[in-house]
Amino acid sequence: MPGAPRPQRLHTYTTPGFDSLRWDRFKPRPGDIIVCTPVKSGTTWTQMLCALLVHQSPVFPEPLTKLSRWLDRDSEPIEDVIAAYEAQEHRRIIKTHTPLDGLPYYEEASYVFCGRDPRDVFLSMTDHIENMSPETLAEILRKSDAPLDFQVLNDRNLVFPLWITTGAHEWMRDGFPFGSVFDLTKSYWDYRHLPNLFFWHYADLMADLDSEARRLSAFLGIPVDASRWPSLIAAASYDAMKDRADELAPGAHFGEWKENKEFFRMARMGQWREILTPENQALYDRVSAEIAEPSMKAWLEGGRRAVGDPKDISEAA
Q1: Residue 97 falls in the annotated catalytic set
Q2: N or C: the chain end with fewer CB closer than 10 Å?
């Protein structure tokens, strides 16, 4: 859209194990695909579908966990991550959990954002923490200057009020200690008019993977031969991805998890109704209404089939 405002890099995001300044070393290429999501919001699923389209095959030149690395995460030296991306001759897929106001903006790149009900994100993230290998958890605690016997998670309903009311940085309002959903989403939502930003939703992927994959194919400008399409969609199913956990689970190549398959433990959809207390459900309703505009909140909770494509939702909606 000519003359439309462009995103500005306003903040630096640093947490134990995460540093948005690593993007300073990245050199973009036309056609780069940046998978930009809140944590536990269909990131790996989105990477998988992008990779299936790029490579036109369920078989990749290297495991997805190496093919599409998390650039912000400092588990690997940034020199190694950049070298791996520079060596790729195909269309690249870069993973980030950084808000758009912490990234350099590239008009020649395609940004793919996946949303998910924040309450499902919270529960999925607690599953994620429980499955961290002792070595990974110890490293995070060491970088946090926390006692090594610190209990990161022991009661979801005790942690939830902190997560929904506190940010990891002074300008953020939610997400501590796992990562923002509302503020991160808003940083992209405010620029949803840009033609190189694509929005889809976890619930829509669950409801109709085939149709959503076709939407992504059209956005990326990657047509797929009809004879290949069924095998690509089959490879992107939840069960198929779980069977390939050793090559698909992020961080599996450096021992991130107790069990790689447990990364795909379950596709949480609405279990918060049984797990979160009535008090925490009421807290969510109150706080989310305060910090999120109604249209964005409704989309996060329901997806495109519930409220429409974010591209078609006006500020007044």
Answers
A1: yes
A2: N
Bridge pairing between strands 33-36 and 93-96: parallel
In this structure, the strands spanning 197-201 and 93-96 are unpaired
- A 10 A CB-CB count for 82 gives 16
Name the pTM for this structure.
0.91
Determine the Cα–Cα distance for residues 70 and 88; give it in Å rounded to an integer.
15
DSSP structure string for 229-252: HHHHHHHTSHHHHHHTHHHHSTTG
Q: Tokens standing for 179? A: 């990562």
What pLDDT score does 266 carry? 62
The three-state secondary structure class of 33 is: strand
**CATH 3.90.1640.10, domain 14-312, yes or no:** no
Starting at the edge strand that comes first in sequence, how are the strands of the sheet with 33-36 ordered?
93-96, 33-36, 110-115, 197-201
Angle between helices 278-291 and 294-302 (to 10 degrees): 130
**pLDDT, position 247:** 87
Q: What angle do CA 74, 114, 13 make, to 5 degrees?
A: 35
The pLDDT tens digits for 67-104 are 999 999 988 899 999 999 999 999 999 999 999 999 99
CB 95 within 8 A of CB 68: yes
3-state secondary structure of 114: strand
Say how far apart CA 123 and CA 212 lie, in whole Å: 24
Catalytic residue among 97, 128, 193, 201: 97
183, containing H or E segment: helix 182-189
Q: Give the pLDDT confidence score for residue 140 in this predicted structure.
A: 62
Q: Quote the CA–CA distance of 71 and 54 in Å, as a whole number.
A: 19
